[in-house]
C-alpha cells in the first residue's frame, strides 16, 4: 500500500536510538523528511547519516522534550529545513522500574516531565502550524502498562496513562481542525539497546526454555520488534488513517487486550 507520505515532514522525539530510530528510518523509506530530536547528539547524528545513506532526508536537533522552548525549536527546525510540519511523534521516554515507595520524588518528576509534559509540549509547539495547515497527525508512543498496570511501574505506567487520556481529550479538541491524535501502545519491544538486559532477565537470546515462559503470555509467541511499532505509526500518519483519532492502539502480539 502506498502510504502517500512522500515529502511529509515528521518530527520524532527520542529518535536517536531504539524504537524511535526505526520509526525515523521507516518514515524516510516512505519518502518523508525527518527531524530527529533527542538529547544524545552522537547517536542522533548517526541516524541522520544512516538515513542519508539510504537516500532519505533527515536533520538532527539536540533537544529536551521536557522543555517547551526545545519542542518549539524542533518545530521551527522542521519549518526552516523542510517548509512544512505534518506529523509529530512523541516517542522519547525514560523508563523507571521500582516499588513505589522505593522511588525518589525527583525520579517521578523526571519521568512525568519527559513522558507527560513532553506530550503537552509537543502538542503545544506543533498545533499553531497544524491548525494553519488544517491538517496534521500527533502520535504518542505509550505502553500497555498504561491501561493494564504493571508491577514496579507505578510512576512510568501512570505517566503514560496520562498520555492515553490526553490523546482522547486533545483529539476532541483538535479534530474539527483536521488534526488526528493517537497513541501506539507496545508491550515489550526488543531493541539494539535493551536486548542484553532482556536476555539477562528472560533469556530471550541464550535461554530459549526460560524465554518460553515469558513468551507464553504473548499469543503470537514472540516479543515486539521496533518495526512492528513503526509500521503502525506510519499508517496512523497516512491519509488512509484520516478517520482514526483519539485511539490508543496496542501493537503487542496480543499480550494484553484492553
Ligand atoms: N522497548 C520497550 O520494550 C517498550 C515497551 C513499551 C513502550 N515503549 C515505549 O517506546 C518508546 C521507545 O522506547 P525505547 O525502548 O526505544 O527507548 P530508549 O530508552 O531506547 O530510547 C529513548 C530515547 O529517548 C531519548 N530521550 C530520553 N529523554 C529525553 C528527553 N528529555 N528529551 C529528548 N529525548 C530524550 C533517549 O536519549 C533515547 O534516545 C518509549 O516511549 C517507551 O516508553 C518501549
TrEMBL record:
Keywords: Oxidoreductase
Name this protein carries in UniProt: Beta-ketoacyl-ACP reductase
Keyword field contains Oxidoreductase: yes
Protein family membership: Belongs to the short-chain dehydrogenases/reductases (SDR) family.
Any one GO molecular function term: oxidoreductase activity
Annotated organism of origin: Desulfosarcina ovata subsp. sediminis
SUPFAM superfamilies xref list: NAD(P)-binding Rossmann-fold domains
InterPro entries: NAD(P)-bd_dom_sf (IPR036291), SDR_fam (IPR002347)
Keyword Oxidoreductase: yes
Origin organism lineage: Bacteria, Pseudomonadati, Thermodesulfobacteriota, Desulfobacteria, Desulfobacterales
Superkingdom field: Bacteria
Amino acid at each position: 500500500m502506498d502510504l502517500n507520505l512522500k515529502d511529509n515532514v515528521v518530527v520524532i522525539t527520542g529518535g536517536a536510538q531504539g524504537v524511535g530510530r526505526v520509526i525515523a528510518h521507516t518514515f524516510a523509506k516512505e519518502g518523508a523528511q525527518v527531524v530527529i530530536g533527542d538529547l544524545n547528539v552522537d547517536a542522533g547524528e548517526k541516524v541522520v547519516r544512516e538515513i542519508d545513506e539510504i537516500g532519505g532526508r533527515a536533520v538532527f536537533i539536540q533537544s529536551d522534550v521536557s522543555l517547551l522552548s526545545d519542542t518549539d525549536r524542533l518545530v521551527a527546525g522542521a519549518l526552516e529545513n523542510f517548509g512544512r510540519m505534518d506529523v509529530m511523534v512523541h516517542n522519547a521516554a525514560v523508563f523507571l522500574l521500582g516499588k513505589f515507595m522505593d522511588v525518589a520524588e525527583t525520579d517521578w518528576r523526571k519521568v512525568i516531565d519527559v513522558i507527560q509534559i513532553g506530550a503537552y509540549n509537543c502538542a503545544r509547539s506543533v498545533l499553531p502550524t497544524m491548525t494553519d495547515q488544517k491538517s496534521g497527525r500527533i502520535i504518542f508512543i505509550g505502553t500497555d502498562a498504561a491501561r493494564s498496570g504493571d508491577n514496579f511501574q507505578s510512576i512510568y505506567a501512570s505517566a503514560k496513562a496520562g498520555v492515553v487520556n490526553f490523546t482522547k481529550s486533545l483529539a476532541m479538541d483538535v479534530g474539527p481542525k483536521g488534526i488526528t491524535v493517537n497513541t501506539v501502545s507496545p508491550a515489550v519491544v526488543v531493541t539494539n539497546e535493551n536486548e542484553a538486559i532482556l536476555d539477562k532477565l528472560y533469556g530471550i537470546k541464550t535461554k530459549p526454555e526460560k524465554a518460553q515462559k515469558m513468551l507464553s503470555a504473548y499469543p503470537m509467541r514472540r516479543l515486539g520488534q521496533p518495526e512492528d511499532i513503526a509500521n503502525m505509526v506510519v499508517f496512523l500518519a497516512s491519509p488512509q488513517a484520516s478517520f482514526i483519532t483519539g485511539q490508543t492502539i496496542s501493537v503487542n502480539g496480543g499480550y494484553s487486550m484492553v
